[in-house]
């Protein structure tokens, strides 16, 4: 559950939520910002309080864009990566929801693979 504390900035609220999930780690991202990984693989990264980028399979990324839940990646629009432009506190829930979708996708794959 995302903290509703107004004492925390947007980035910190998102970071705290993601870091509360089992197996999630954070690292500096090679193009700036903070990268979040699960099982050693990147779930996505944040560029401060402005932008979230997440790598999805092309079909999933396309569906998220069609549904209006994300935009094509700001640098690699045909890649399957999506971008979400953060517009204040009201965006926190949507960003966390995208990371949750990614987390569930990535951890269920590992669970299926190891079963």
Assembly of the depicted chains: single chain
The beta-strand count equals 6
Helix vs. strand class: alpha+beta
Q: The biggest beta sheet, please?
A: 6 strands, antiparallel
Secondary-structure element order, N to C: HEEEEHEEH
* Beta-strand share of residues: 25-35%
Distance between the termini: 29 Å
Helical content class: 25-40%
Shape: globular
Number of helices: 3
Rg result:
14 Å
**Stretches with pLDDT under 50, minimum 5 residues:** none
What's the arrangement of strands in the largest beta sheet? 1-2-3-4-6-5
Q: What value does the average pLDDT take?
A: 89
Key words describing this protein structure:
single chain, alpha+beta, 115 residues, 6 strands, 25% strand
Structure description:
- The protein has 3 helices and 6 strands, in the order H-E-E-E-E-H-E-E-H.
- By secondary structure, it is of the alpha+beta class.
- Strand 5 (71-72) and strand 6 (81-85) form a beta hairpin.
- The chain has a domain at 10-52 and 85-114.
- 37% of the residues lie in helices and 25% in strands.
- Helix 1 runs parallel beside helix 3.
